[in-house]
Amino acid sequence: MSQTIPLISSGVSGPLGVLHLPRLWQKVSLDKAGKLHSDYPAIGAGYDQMVLDALGIDKESFNTFMDTKPTYPQLEVWVLEQKGGVLDTDTVKTLNESIIGYNHTDETRAAILAACGVQDNGDILDAIRLNNLEDWQEFYAQQIKG
């Protein structure tokens, strides 16, 4: 069975405005279907856990709900139900700012850029763009270059 590299960026939000939630949904959905690339955790300790913690959603509850293989809009409805129908805008704003503002270590940045053949001139610091580059490079190596 083919393994899929998730290409939804952490910088993408759905109608609720929560950054990274669409990527988390995609990764867990792929995992539930047995199609997530082995280099990617379904629910990791970084942005994935940040989103769940900010939304006040237990990892196991989220994982159990994802067993139902929901569409993305169904996931957002479920998230709202967990929050009593209201998502605190300040919480979402704070979460989104922390996602946007997160930078990888210098060593991680250098390794990602080197693997992608991009000169490290200090212009790309944020984890969102670095993770995008890494995903695109992995996608290219797996699907295009072969």
Structural class of the helix and strand makeup? mainly alpha
Q: What does the main sheet amount to?
A: none
Give the beta-strand count: 0
Poorly predicted runs of 5 or more residues? none
Q: Could you tell me the strand content as a percent range?
A: under 5%
Measured as a percent range, the helix fraction is: 55-70%
- Shape summary: globular
**Whole-number radius of gyration?**
16 Å
Mean pLDDT: 96
Compressed to H and E, one letter per element, the order equals HHHHHHH
Number of helices: 7
- Count the domains: 2
Distance between the termini: 16 Å
Mind explaining what this structure looks like?
The chain is mainly α and 146 residues long. It folds into 2 domains: 1-102, no CATH class; 103-146, no CATH class. The protein is 57% helix and 0% strand. The chain has 7 helices and no strands. It has helices spanning 21-32, 47-55, 59-66, 72-82, 89-101, 106-116, 127-145. The chain starts with 20 loop residues before the first helix and ends with a helix. The model has no long low-confidence stretch (mean pLDDT 96).
